[in-house]
Amino acid sequence: MLTHGILNAQLSHALATLRHKDRFVVSDCGLPVPEGVEVIDLALVFGVPRFEDVLDAIKGELVLENGLMASEAQGTEPEEWVTSRFDLPVSYVPHDGEDGFKSRLKGVKFVIRTGETTSYANVIFQCGVPF
After folding, report:
1. pTM for the full predicted model
2. Catalytic residues
3. Where are the domains of the chain?
4. What architecture does CATH give domain 20-125?
5. Residue 23, SS3 per DSSP
């Protein structure tokens, strides 16, 4: 049995399969996910686990090169949760629309659904390499 790190088998496996340039999402509990995209549903009840708890859990597991958030998240807690934990450039696009955040969910490897209820607590991360 594991004694540390991510204990959720589905999440641990999904993280281990990520490669350079792969994208994945950490989302609030309400983000609509396109059909065919794997959802790793960690939500238990509203607010559990928090978006920031999941960010903390994955932080030491991955090399990330950038993030993407909705422009509506600028100046909010979700933006602070991401930028305070990860030293990477974050870009912003409108939440909705033809080239918005939701449209960019197509092609992500998976979505980690949290129990977060704070609006716009969603980020698309792109993986980097450790060398």
Report:
1. 0.96
2. 20
3. 20-125
4. 3-Layer(aba) Sandwich (3.40)
5. strand
